[in-house]
Design a protein that fits this description.
5-stranded antiparallel sheet, binds adenosine monophosphate, 175 residues, alpha+beta, binds zinc ion, 14% strand, disordered N terminus
Length: 175
């Protein structure tokens, strides 16, 4: 009996500490994930290796993989590994890390696919066509004006007075 009680007294604190330690490390990991990864974000899952993607480039901060919809052959998405809803939420350091890699990835795609041009597109918020809310840059190589990518800029008659006013307003607005 004495031995049994003694063992229990010795064991409980050790067990208690271990549980507490485990618990706090799980809490810490979850906290870190909340900052850098969104558990319900499809691109965070690709970055974490939880779902597959056809990767074309990877470094510490950036991942590029083929878009599943392939608007044109070689259509690629370049994403920051850190989760941001879209470009509007990013600071200059993180957006620089992302854009720094875009030209070289673009050239690789051009060379590999034999494309003769490329549209580089970024959609922000639903109204602009964003469907996945983790910043991504579309790199869409072009092979023909008649391929499946349609980008239309409808031109309007310029009113130079209005342009001047609007430019001034934007220039004076704090971000
Ligand atoms: P956006 O409409 O600008 O938000 O673009 C989202 C893009 O993500 C679309 O072109 C989708 O085809 C693409 N996409 C969605 N899920 C995946 C996935 N699992 N792997 C690759 N691309 C994906
Ligand atoms: Zn994400």
């Amino acid at each position: 009996y004495n031995m049994f009680n003694c063992k229990l007294l010795l064991c409980i604190p050790v067990y208690g500490n271990t549980v507490q330690h485990l618990h706090s490390s799980i809490l810490y990991q979850n906290l870190a994930k909340e900052v850098y990864f969104m558990t319900d974000c499809i691109f965070c899952k690709i970055i974490a290796g939880k779902i597959p993607a056809a990767k074309v480039y990877e470094d510490e901060g950036v991942l590029a993989f083929l878009d599943i919809s392939q608007v044109t052959p070689g259509h690629t998405l370049v994403v920051p590994k850190k989760h941001f809803r879209n470009l509007l939420e990013m600071d200059s350091v993180n957006s620089s890390l992302l854009f720094e890699q875009v030209p070289q990835i673009a050239r690789k795609i051009m060379k590999a696919t034999g494309a003769t041009g490329m549209n580089i597109i970024n959609n922000n918020e639903e109204i602009a066509g964003q469907t996945v809310f983790h910043t991504h840059i579309h790199l869409a190589p072009r092979f023909s004006e008649k391929d499946d990518l349609k980008v239309t800029f409808v031109a309007h008659e310029p009113n130079f007075e209005e342009l001047g006013k609007l430019a001034e307003k934007i220039a004076q607005t704090k971000e």
